[in-house]
Every structure is written in C-alpha cells, then in structure tokens.
Amino acid sequence: MDCKSPKSSPSLNNPGRSPLNKSRLSLYSSLFPYSQSGGSSFARRVLTVPKKKAGKLDDALSNGWLESMKSSSPPKKKILKDPGLDVASDDNDYAYHSWLLSYPSALRSFDKITDFASNKKIAIFLDYDGTLSPIVDDPDCAYLSTDMRSAVRSVAKYFPTAIISGRSRDMVYNLVGLKELYYAGSHVSLETHRAKVLPSPACKEFLPVIDEVFRTLERNTRDIEGAKVENHKFCVSVHYRNVSEKVSLLGYSAERVHNIVDDYPQLRLTHGRKVLEVRPVIDWDKGKAVEFLLNSLGLENSDDVLPIYIGDDRTDEDAFTVLRQGNRGYGILVSSTPKESEALFSLKDPSEVNDFLKSLSSLVRSNRVMASSFYLLSSSPYPSGNFFILSLFQSARTNHIFNFPRSFPLIKQQTFSAISASSLDTGLTTELDAVSSHSEVVPDTVIFDDFERFPPTAATVSSSLLLGICSLPDTAFRGAVDTALADRKCSATDSSDARMSCFFNQALVNVGCDLAKLVPGRVSTEIDARLAYDTHGIISKVHDLLNLYREVEVPPERLLFKIPATWQGIEASRILESEGIRTHMTLVYSFCQAAAAAQAGASVIQIFVGRIRDWARHRSGDPEIEAALKRGEDPGLALVTKAYSYIHKYGHNSKLMAAAIRNKQDVLHVLGVDYIITPLKILQALKESVTPDDKYSFVKRLSPDSANAYNFSEEELVKWDQYSFASAMGPAGVELLAAGLDGYANQAKRVEEFFGKIWPPPNV
C-alpha cells in the first residue's frame, strides 16, 4: 500500500471523523401520549430480581460492535454564543463545553501544571497513535508530522525521551526515526543507544502459541480483501480498516478471528481502533506498565517527581487511574469529544499535544523547570496490547504526592422558565405554534426535579440518567438508586458481575417507577447495548425488566423499551411487539434499519439527523448519502423523508422520530414527521417569534400524499432478512451504529463500576 513519506505525513487535524454524541438524559414532552382510564398508583418498594445467567458479551462485540468506530469523530465546531442566531451549534458543542469544566485544557492550565513541577523531576508518558500521530487508515502510514517530530526532538534535547508502543520496537522506530529516543515495543524488549532490557520469563512462554496463532490467522484471512495480520511477538493484530464495510458489518472477519482464538484459552481477543487484537491472558496493562517503569527507575517513593501521562485511548485509562489513585501525577486525555475519564486535564488533538511539548521545551529554556530531571516516555495503543516496558534511565528518587478533587461533569437543569414570558402568553401566533400544528414537538432537555415548572408527559430512563443521578446526590431520584443498592437478593448474589447487573436492573426500574408517577405518558427504558447482537438476550432483559415493573405496579402499557437497531435488535422488536410489548428502536442511520424496523412493527423509530450530516461532511463512500448529495439534499433530512414515506406508503404503524436537530431549518424540513426532538435553544427561538419569519416556509413537508408520491426501487421493497440488511448497510450506518453502541455500552459499564465502588451503602 502506498504511504506518504514522513516528510509529507498526514496533517495533525484529522478531518475524517464524525462526532460521537453522548446520550441525552431526555424527558420527552408530549411524547407517546398515554390515555389513562383512571388513576393509578405506583408503590415504592425494595425490588428483588433472580440471579441471571450472563450473556455472551464477547460474541456480541466480535460480531460487529467495534469500538474502533470512534475514529470517525471530527473536530468540534465553535460554540455559538450569540442568542440572536437562529442556527444552533452542534448538539455536542454544549456537552463539550461543559465537559471542559471538569477536564480543563492542559494548555490553558499550563501554568498550574508547571507550578507543581517547580523544582521537581517530571516524567511524561505519551500515547503514540492518536496522540503524537493522527489515526490513519493504514497503521504503517501513521508517521509523525514534521512539526511533531521537531517538537519531540526538541524535548529529547533536554530530557530522556522514550516511546512505548503495542507495535514492535522496530516498527515504532521506523515511524518516528529519531535515534535520540528510547523505544519500547510489544516484544517487551527495549533497545536504545543506552540500554536493552529483555522479556520476563512469564512472557516468553507465550511466544510459541502466539506465533502459531499468527500463522493460522494469516492463512485464514487471505481471502478477505483489505485484512492485514501483524505479528508483534507478544501480540497479534488483525487490521480491518481497509476491509469492505459490508464484510465488517456481517462480522465475517471478526467471526473467523473469534473462532480461531476460541481454541486457545491462554489468549484473549480484544478490540482497538479498527483492529482485533490477540493477547496473552496475563494481568498487565498500561497502568501496571507505568508502575513497573517508575519502580524500575527508582521513582516510586520520592517526593520530587511529577509524572504526566498523555493518551487518547481507553487503554490509557489504566495509567490515568494509577496516577490518580496513587496521587502521583496528572493524566491528560486527548479527545475532541466528551467522555468520562480518570484524567485530570485534556488536550483536543495531536496539534495541541504538539503545542504542549513545545511549551515544555520553552519552560526548560526559561529555567522554570529542571531540564536534567525530565523523563519523557511514550506509549501506544496500536495495537493496544500488553505493555512490557523497561528502561535504564538515570536512577532518581521521586514521588510528588498531590490530590486534585474532581466530580462528574455537571448536568445542567434546563426548563422553559427562560421563555415563560414569551409571546405565546399574549395569545399571539408564534413559529412554535406553526410547527406544532404539523408535528409533535419534543423538548430535548435534561431535567431532574423541576417538574412543576415544566411537566413532561413522557420520559426515558437510561444508563446516562443513572450516571447523572449518581453524580448529583441531591436529586429527587437518588433515593431510587440507593433503594436498588439495598436489595438483599442482589446483595446475596455470589458473582460480583451478576450482583452489579442485578443492581443496575433494580436502579433502572426504581427510577422508571418514579418517573411513571410524574408523567402521564410512557416511560422508555434503555436496554443494555452490550446485548445489541443477542436477540434472545434482549428479549430476556426486557422480560426481566417488565417483571420488575409489574412488582411496583407499573403496567406494560405505560412502558416502551429502547433497543439498538442492529438486525438482532430488530428481530427482538418483532417478537416483543407480537407479545404486545412496545419497542423504541434507536441508533437508526440507514434506510434498511428504518424499513426493517417498520416491517418488524416497532412502535417508534428514531433517526439522528445531525449525526448523519456530520458523517457526510467529513467522509465519503456511502451510496445512499452520495445519492442524496447529488440531489442537493441533506442526507440526514433525506433519510427522515424516505423512512416516513416508506412507513406511510406501505401501511406500517410505526411512529417516526427525528432527533439530533441542529437548527430551525432542520425543524422546517421535517414538518409532518410524528415527533421532532428539538433543542431548547431552537424551541426558545421559535416560541419568541410572534409571527413566522418570511424567510422560512412553515409548510407541512411530510404527509400521506407526499409519501404516496415517493418512488422506491425494487431492492428497497424487499422483505428484509439478515443478509439483505447487512448488504444494504452503508459505511455511515455501520460506523455510526458501532459508535453509538460503544458509547451506550461504556455508560452501562461505568454505572456498574460506580455501583461497585459505593456498595454496600452505609445502611446495609
């Protein structure tokens, strides 16, 4: 494969990404109205659930849910702060701005960081791919830019500098090309102009089996075009970045790898950025690598060192945790999208890492820190394998103890109080009135306890909401979570994982029960995204939650169950709907998802307009999106129009919901759709406008007549099955679905981890 040379390496600001939006903790207004024949009460009680058999998460992961799709996230747009503008900012801008309050920019906090470094020895650990170099399609082409190489070389002039990587040492050296650095690779040896450290005996025993697996994988993936197998001595990686998206969706290559690894119990399969990794089953990660290195350097028990770790991958969290829990130093997360982390500071992308390194060199020249005491190390998650690292730096006794308190990012309460004195109160016609005459307007808002001023009529309970409740202990729903953690049957469960899963189910239902008392409509309960590729697992989970809801006297007709729109999720919806259980399909990014969900009889189908648009702005190669662009249409809005037309033209009963609405024009282009989830900023602008703006057309765009006039191809009118579904999923659908699943699953995992930290509660 042709690659650019190091002198013309990729730019630091990678344009090939689309955002991963964090789930909103939404309470929907006038959504899924429910007619109550009479009053009902919902008893608050301590719930119990039976011990359940764990699902096959690994199978689900390897069959298409690839966290590597995070690489499709683009740089964020500038936040619009002018309230007079009628174009809303990216729906992730506000979340990112709020996120920075908890993870301040390391550049803006540079003086604070270096104040701690005064008269101390600084050890800096850096991730390689995604930190020093952007993530690129071909890992062999992940060169340092000329500017980044200059910054690293400048740092190496003043401080011992090393790069630690999951790649082989030679591969990393060839990419970086600086002789003055230390290089540590996945083969657990370190070779530099100063020292060499050999593998540990515990690691050597895996060499024969890893070599055998490498040969087997190489032989069994030769017919998969674009697949690339690499032997890193102590880690084998299978790159699928250049494999056809349709093949990736089918899980064809992943299934082969999984089946091969199943025959080797001493190995495990993990997922990186568009890479499957085979690693030994040993207790080793980046956090332990940091501890081992600090110990080897004699830096673990002194009071004059400040370790700093900079990385972008979730494998770096182990290192962040070590520095945080041990009160040893700072973690700096490289990310342009909000995500929970044990890091204390953030940098947006490799260009900011470049600026940070240059600033360090400048500090040395200004004598503000001690050049002879800096230790610069670097690590890589490419592949994010086991890190066996060592170096022979000048021995020094160090350890700066400090503690930076940090809480979860604040979740801002928002209500309509800011627009309560709007023109609607005067009886005049507003733009919001005009919109509401065609579609149900659903405020996209996060509310915890201000129901009196803005009473929603329906709600969603999710892992995101549980995280928000746990981070704000004074919320009205914290008691529901505490009650779940006090459940005796869950507490008596032998397995820790099963116990946390039990608590998780309890908490969802307890909070859902409280919400059901507050809203007249339905409560939508999120189903664990880790079950996204397990039809029976989804159905079992829904039945378990439904039984728990019955125990607190919330009837099934008050409930929806929010399921990811994988093929397995759609099949689960078909079965559940046949049982009279209402389903809400989410993460819909392609027509085949919407059509298959409609054929399955899903009650609600949710399409994310803005996320599809973002993908199209920075990526190409999706036939459906390319066709919309050629017609001069926005691809997200075009998908809403197409799905609406299909549902109404062919007599399906599903309701269509347009989400990730970014501006007023988006609202007007989907007028007539069943539900429009609209940000408060847009709603406020609509409600404060006394008469419709002449430059906008408040015309119903979607109607049964427009649906009947829509032309579909024969291929689009098939009875969808798993093969046709997989074949029709374009790159945008594949990547955005995987990204959404990854985000939801991480949130669920974090809830269970949080419960594990606070359980048992004081009164148990």
Automatic annotation (TrEMBL):
**What is the E.C. number?**
2.2.1.2, 3.1.3.12
Please give the Pfam families that the UniProt record associates with this protein.
TAL_FSA, Trehalose_PPase
The identity of this protein, by name, is Trehalose 6-phosphate phosphatase
InterPro entries xrefs: Aldolase_TIM (IPR013785), HAD-like_sf (IPR036412), HAD-SF_hydro_IIB (IPR006379), HAD_sf (IPR023214), OTSB-like (IPR044651), TAL/FSA (IPR001585), Transaldolase_1 (IPR004730), Trehalose_PPase (IPR003337)
In terms of SUPFAM superfamilies, this protein maps to:
Aldolase (SSF51569), HAD-like (SSF56784)
Here the segments flagged for biased composition (Polar residues) are 12-21
Q: Per UniProt, what is one GO molecular function of this protein?
A: transaldolase activity
Biological process (GO) annotations held by this record are:
pentose-phosphate shunt; trehalose biosynthetic process
Catalytic activities? alpha,alpha-trehalose 6-phosphate + H2O = alpha,alpha-trehalose + phosphate
Which residues does UniProt call coiled coil? none
Question: Mind listing the UniProt keywords for this protein, alphabetically?
Answer: Cytoplasm, Hydrolase, Pentose shunt, Schiff base, Stress response
GO CC terms:
cytoplasm
Q: Does the keyword Amino-acid biosynthesis apply?
A: no
| Matching PANTHER family | TREHALOSE 6-PHOSPHATE PHOSPHATASE, TREHALOSE-PHOSPHATE PHOSPHATASE F-RELATED
Check the record and name the NCBIfam families matching this protein. HAD-SF-IIB, T6PP
Per the record, the pathway is: Carbohydrate degradation; pentose phosphate pathway; D-glyceraldehyde 3-phosphate and beta-D-fructose 6-phosphate from D-ribose 5-phosphate and D-xylulose 5-phosphate (non-oxidative stage): step 2/3; Glycan biosynthesis; trehalose biosynthesis
Residue stretches of biased makeup (Low complexity): 1-11
